[in-house]
Amino acid sequence: MSNVTYIAKSYAKINLGLRVIDRLPDGYHEIETGFVFINWYDRLQVTKATETVFRCSNKDLSTGKDNLVMKAVDLMRKHTGKKLNYHIQLSKMIPLGAGLGGGSSNAAVILKMINHIENFGYSDDELSKLGVKLGADVPVFIHGETAIGSGIGDKLEFIDIQPDLFIVTAYPGFQSSTAEAYRYCQPYQDETLNVRKILLNDDPSEWNLFLINDLEPPVIEIHPFVGSLKDQFYDLGAIYASMSGSGSSVYGLFDQEFAAIETFEYLKTEGYEVTLTSPHFEIDKGIYPKA
Q1: Catalytic (active-site) positions
Q2: Which of 119, 142, 160 is the last residue of a domain?
Q3: Which of 27, 94, 158, 278 is the most buried (most CB within 10 A)?
Q4: Rounded mean pLDDT of 238-258?
Q5: Nearest CA to 223 among 177, 256, 286?
Q6: pTM of the shown model
């Protein structure tokens, strides 16, 4: 058995707009959203072993069978019919319950790492068909490409929508419930607020007028500070600001580097977990043997 340890980065995403179009009978929601990546990531280390042991740096995160990393391992076992066992170490930097997709990203990267380590040869499309069983946004992390998502977020149109802008993303220190955000949101059909049309045709300086996250109002009703943080981004010079996904994180887009850096430094001194992402950011998809 090879004892090579492999490492990979597991990146966060933000949502550029999120329209909730309809409630579906199975409890899911039909949505439209833009998925882009930010320079905020967890680190995964995986080594083949005789039994599976999963450790995480964040003690608030369960490492049992309910964790998406463990669910991903079990999914690959069932799909391949093989007894797959690994020692897995997750260095957790992406906040929990933040609307940044950390859990889905972890699941996607584990699927890709197992595929690589075991030389299964599955394509990203094949892994995505598996991954969607773990979460609607797992496929976008498997592909690692910016996309416009529709359906329940699993139908992906890969388009380069990574902003040519600086992105400052802040976590306010508390989690937001995805279930509550969707439960209290109001599906709203309006073609003039079509996410795809806005992202592809409108200048980012106009997004504050048209690019909407339908989950914001119910989350701000429960957590008013999310709205205050969004307003603060505008006060600090953002040309667009929004809650990401179902919250609680909020991001701002900046066309001036100095304003982005000043905002990043200010929010950091105020005690937020915060990251700064450069224009046209691209993630590192590599799976590397540990030196």
Answers
A1: 13, 137
A2: 160
A3: 94
A4: 98
A5: 177
A6: 0.96
